[in-house]
């Protein structure tokens, strides 16, 4: 009799194990199916958003206000109109005040329509540039990396005061430090 009870328990345990395995496989299939549906529906939504964004970009030109201040253009193949400024001579920050910088700067405009505003605000532009240059030390302007950082700072500050366009880049056409 004990052998029969043991045999019946083994049969019931085997069926229970099979049912458990089938249940786990079924749950895994449901989870994988749900993930597939979720991922496929997300791709359609992302593709539709990308298509809408591309359509908006082709139908309207980006506004100058969308430009981030301080970001200079590196598109040298499509340079904008150049607005030359007069020469700048400023004292650099130093302990004894004996360092100075002499430079000439040209501004690259986003469009020719910016020229009248630059003419009108020429004194403000020169003031911004003089304040920025005179706040630097010899060490800050003597390296190429320092000059690039200086350009970014000047472009960002100037673009904050312009409304008819923006400055894409500035060029040092003369740069002497003593």
From TrEMBL:
Principal location: membrane
Residue ranges with Low complexity bias: 50-68
Pfam families given in the database record: FliL
InterPro entries for the chain: FliL
Region (Disordered): 50-75
Transmembrane annotation, as ranges: 16-40
Keyword Electron transport: no
Superkingdom assignment: Bacteria
Coiled coil spans: none
Compartments where located: Cell membrane
Keyword Transmembrane: yes
Topology within the bilayer: Single-pass membrane protein
Function recorded in the entry: Controls the rotational direction of flagella during chemotaxis.
Recorded family membership: Belongs to the FliL family.
Name under which the protein is recorded: Flagellar protein FliL
